[in-house]
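Recall that a protein's primary structure is simply its ordered list of amino acids. Everything else, from secondary elements to tertiary packing, is in principle encoded there. The following example makes that idea concrete.
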Amino acid sequence: MNSLGPLNTAGLLVLGVAVLWTVRLVYGVRGAQGEDLMRRLLLVTGWMLVVTGALGVLAGLLSWLSLGFWLLALIVVLMTLARYQDCERRSLLWTLAIAAEKQIPLSDAVRSLADERPWSLSGRVTRLAEQLERGVPLPKALHESRNPLPMDAELAVRFGAETGQMGPALRQVLQHVDLVEMTVRTAIEKLLYMIFVTLSSLVLLVFYAVFVMSRFQALMGSFNVAPPPLTVLVFSVCDSLATWWPVLIPLLVLLPLLAVVSLLYYVGWLNHNLPLLGWIWLRYDSGLLLRCLALAVGQRRSVGATLGMLAVRFPRASTRRRLRAASR
């Protein structure tokens, strides 16, 4: 068996494909079986076998590089799952927004969405529909059915439930979030590229200064070769780096930390409530508040009463304190 190498795990790949094909034959492509526990278990098992078999074959082919490949593959899979769940959550919010605008019962719209999801979020969306059919308010139903929302969508749901402007509030937030996410993601991509280039350059420069340049100097001295002025300047810079390279340690630590935080936010695993960084999003909160106030003024609601309501309903505690002062 050892002589087969990467083919040892090819059987898992074939078995996973067979399981998925069997599920397709028995249950069909789509249907009302989204809540079937056995179907879900077979789907998860099949995809785990396919992924494990494919990664095992590739890791066997890459030999000693397999550890880095597995780590990279795990990161990519987790990023894909996070983005997929975020897209599913946006589908739910758009369904709620359109149903509220068209005066369609929210429970019917949510149940229709659950019927179109064969596994993914169907369980939680179905529980949400059941909560709404029992007359539970939407904010509480979302919480009890374990459907987490980002802060701005949570505010829109709370504000819409209080003012009867659920559809406009959700639509306004979703359109704004799409623009903000596109801007932030573009900035993070450029930031990650700059961090990668900077770290690579620093590591190579320190390695060259500490381990290579001294040997190069000794080699030129053994042949009694006088280096040109530019090479002498490089020698002096490398000597300084070889002496003072510990000064770069904080930079070599902070840049990877910044890259990890940016990457986690990029894939949706971090929200805006980061420790010591919440002050950055005060302007973002101001935009949310101004949009809520615009909807309230359009309904001829009192600004003071609206601020008082937002001081209770706003998700972020620091902004609630400021709203209570403004309301007073």
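The chain is about 75% helix and 0% strand. The chain has a mean pLDDT of 78.
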